[in-house]
Amino acid sequence: MHANHLLLEEPIRMASILEPSKASFFPAMTKIVGTLGPKSRSVEVISGCLKVGMSVARFDFSWGDPDYHQETLENLKAAVKSTKKLCAVMLDTVGAELQVVNKCEKSISLLIDGFVVLTPYKDQEASSELLPINFNGLAKAVKKGDTIFVGQYLFTGSETTSVWLEVSEVKGDDVVCMIKNSATLAGSLFTLHVSQIHIDLPTLSDKDKEVISTWGVKNKIDFLSLSYTRHAEDVRQARDHLSKLGDLQQTQIFAKIENVEGLNHFDEILQEADGIILSRGNLGIDLPPEKVFLFQKAAVYKCNMAGKPAVITRVVDSMTDNLRPTRAEATDVANAVLDGSDAILLGAETLRGLYPVETISIVGKICAEAEKVFNQDLYFKKTVKYVGEPMTHLESIASSAVRAAIKVKASVIICFTSSGRAARYRWMFEYGCACTGYPRKLNDLFRVHFLSVCKLSFGGSIC
């Protein structure tokens, strides 16, 4: 694993920090993925999200049926038309996700030092003493002392709807757990995560395949977010499935790394996937808290050097219920950008958060500020050194274009392309890139820096 360094322009004048942020003609180059849901599915709210910087709409099939998501997507189309803002569509699979089955959808109170039984018999009613789950192999996978986390879907980790359990004993197919903190499980869907345990469920389930083959094909999705990717073979199987669906052959696969198993096979997954999503929520449970930042920095660096987008999740949890992020969250977003992250994925903050538009706006502003002090020259030199010699023809052209742009202080590189390959190579060497001729919506995602040739009304040379 390579350690990464902050690519920060030095020195920063303290006076400039006190100056008000100036409105920029262009949005942040770091892209924002917004998860659409109950609080963010109206045309009005989606339009607001697009105006302040959302460039990818994420549809998570862990909850909601295809009809519900289709209604949301139709609203997105209307918002795109009215705002004239492009937005890509990302389908997020369920994958090997463990869920508590709560048919009555009633709140469940759990008290510290009490006991609760996890059972695979889904027909039983959920209560404070019994939680039915959707997996019949838990008793064989866990042992006494293992840690289990149960929380509301897209939990923030700081709320009272999350509970930590410790396995006390295994009784047949049931797992008896001690409750480590008092909590009330509220909401229609609770997810369950077992720390560092292999879950014998397919990464791409039959339900996922059906949704992709129907809803995905119908809507010609731009990105497939492959939840709980654990091996490169998971990506290959997903790509094989997409290749059989004619309309989705250009759909890119972003592997979500959510547990230690995926972490251990990160290099091979990176080689197969089109991009990586670092799911810090589940990773923060699977890994000790003090280790999460190490993986994040190393993974982002590897994505940068491979020329593949790195997406960071779980950045402003507090904005699910508050109008402003914490100081630590704001710094976290900026440092992620300085480390080389290409996009920020918002989950609970936009899906069920009270301030989806404000959240996207603030995250975008933080990203833009970080980009102002991002050392493009240093990043370029590091990338060239990593790629080495000999370069491919496209890499050589891209490298030369970026080198020339840096020397003449160009504001943007215009890249005419039909497939997008040339523009993505220039992105690998990290410089502003405008692109025309690309037929799909992919040109509005991640730090491929696609702007628009008609928007070049600013100072600086054009290379």
Automatic annotation (TrEMBL):
Origin, by domain of life?
Eukaryota
Which keywords does this chain's UniProt record carry?
ATP-binding, Glycolysis, Kinase, Magnesium, Metal-binding, Nucleotide-binding, Pyruvate, Transferase
UniProt-listed Enzyme Commission number(s):
2.7.1.40
GO terms assigned for molecular function = ATP binding; kinase activity; magnesium ion binding; potassium ion binding; pyruvate kinase activity
Pfam families membership: PK
Q: Which reaction does it catalyse?
A: pyruvate + ATP = phosphoenolpyruvate + ADP + H(+)
Q: In which pathway does it act?
A: Carbohydrate degradation; glycolysis; pyruvate from D-glyceraldehyde 3-phosphate: step 5/5
Location of the Pyruvate kinase barrel domain? 30-360
Look up the record and name the cofactor or cofactors this protein needs.
K(+)
Q: Which family does it belong to?
A: Belongs to the pyruvate kinase family.
- By what name is this protein known? Pyruvate kinase
**Organism annotation:** Vitis rotundifolia
